C-alpha cells in the first residue's frame, strides 16, 4: 500500500535508535499477494527490521475493530508493553515516533 511504502523507509531509518532505547519494531504484512512478494519487496527496499507475513485468515484477529487502517504501527518497550499505537501514516505519526525516540533517549540518559 502507498502509506506502507511511505512509512517503511522512515521506520527503517529510526530502527537503530528505537532499538538503542529498548523499543522493538516489527511489521506484520497483511498483503494477500503470493508469499514471496513481501520478502522480495523488503529486500529491494533495504528493510532490516523484522516483518512477519500472515494470511487472510489472520486479518480478523489482527484487526478486531470495525475499521481496518493500514499501516498500523505498534511500538513496544523492552518488557513487551505497548507504548504507542499509530493508525495510518501521516506527518503527525512520523513526528510522534520521532518524539518518542527523542524522549526515550533523554529518559535513557538519566
Please describe what this structure looks like.
With 110 residues, the chain is an alpha+beta fold. It has 4 helices and 4 strands. The strands form 2 sheets. A two-stranded parallel sheet has the order 1-2. It is globular. The termini are far apart.
Spell out the blueprint of helices and strands.
Blueprint: H1 2-20, E1 27-29, H2 37-45, E2 51-53, H3 59-62, E3 72-76, E4 82-87, H4 91-109
Helix pairs in contact: 1-4
Number of strands: 4
For the record, give the distance between the C-alpha atoms at the N and C termini, rounded to a whole number.
40 Å
Q: Order of strands in the sheet with the most strands?
A: 1-2
What is the beta-strand fraction? Answer: 15-25%
What's the mean pLDDT score?
Answer: 78
SS summary, helix count:
4
Assign a percent range to the helix content: 40-55%
Low-pLDDT sequence parts: none
* Main beta-sheet strand count, sense and barrel state: 2 strands, parallel
**Morphology call:** globular
Rg calc: 14 Å
Q: What is the H/E order?
A: HEHEHEEH
What is the structural class? alpha+beta
In a few lines, what is going on in this structure?
This protein is α+β, with helices and mostly antiparallel strands and 110 residues long. The protein has four helices and four strands.
Descriptive terms for the model:
110 residues, two-stranded antiparallel ribbon, 46% helix, 4 strands, two-stranded parallel ribbon, globular, alpha+beta
